[in-house]
Q: What sequence folds into this?
């Protein structure tokens, strides 16, 4: 299986690039942000809890996210591979993902780390906020999300460097240019594994 973790700060383009990767490589998509927003829309118990965290720019607690992911992963059995978009975001989540995949006889193939400067991230998210209706696309929440990213999520890069799976990609340019960079890395990685 080809299992890709797409990683980066809020607004780095994880969701945008995931759509293109899925089409090119025929992967299933798991976006924890999308799953949480669907739960919020349906008004489920998980959605109500998640909404409190998301609207403050905080991460939803690991236990809730890990249980949620295990359920979604089981629904993607028999696929060619999965793109994990916005997951893991903490070291415990990365460890849980490894365990879940190992139990299913597979592992993360590579991690793509999209690098974008902070000013550009803020501009993109404010721009998206004009039409997204998302409770977290406003300047105060964006600042909290960036702080949480630096303190809790960015250290994960080290985890994947140690695993030998970390690839930094410049996340600035046209969407197609960035996708070409990602595609090249994935193809290199697939060739190594053949
Ligand atoms: P996510 O839904 O994962 O959202 P994100 O980090 O804001 O966005 P992404 O990087 O995917 O940006 P996009 O492609 O849309 O998370 C939302 C919240 O859910 C989190 O803050 C957290 O509270 C919670 N959550 C999710 N997963 C969790 C987990 N595992 N653990 C705990 N909590 C979790 O791009 C952004 C904008 O930029 C778009 O408008 C896009 O059009 C634009 N853009 C993209 N590429 C561009 C380019 N090359 N040039 C110009 N603009 C571009």
A:
């Amino acid at each position: 299986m080809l299992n890709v973790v797409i990683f980066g700060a809020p607004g780095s383009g994880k969701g945008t690039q995931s759509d293109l990767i899925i089409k090119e490589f025929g992967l299933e998509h798991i976006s924890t942000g999308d799953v949480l927003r669907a739960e919020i829309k349906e008004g489920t118990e998980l959605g109500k809890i998640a909404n409190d965290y998301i609207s403050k720019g905080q991460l939803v607690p690991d236990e809730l996210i890990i249980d949620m992911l295990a359920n979604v992963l089981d629904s993607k059995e028999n696929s060619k591979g999965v793109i994990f978009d916005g997951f893991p975001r903490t070291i415990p989540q990365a460890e849980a993902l490894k365990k879940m995949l190992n139990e299913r006889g597979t592992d993360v193939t590579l991690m793509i780390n999209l690098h974008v400067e902070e000013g550009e991230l803020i501009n993109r998210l404010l721009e998206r906020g004009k039409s997204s209706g998302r409770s977290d696309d406003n300047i105060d929440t964006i600042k909290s999300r960036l702080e949480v990213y630096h303190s809790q999520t960015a250290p994960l890069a080290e985890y994947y460097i140690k695993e030998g799976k970390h690839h930094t990609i410049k996340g600035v340019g046209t969407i197609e240019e960035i996708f070409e960079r990602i595609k090249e890395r994935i193809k290199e990685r697939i060739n190594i594994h053949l």
User: Anything to note?
Assistant: Residues 8, 10-16, 32-33, 36, 53-54, 59-60, 65, 86-87, 89, 93, 124, 128, 136, 145, 175, 178 surround BIS(adenosine)-5'-tetraphosphate (CB under 6 Å). The first strand starts at residue 2 and ends at 8.
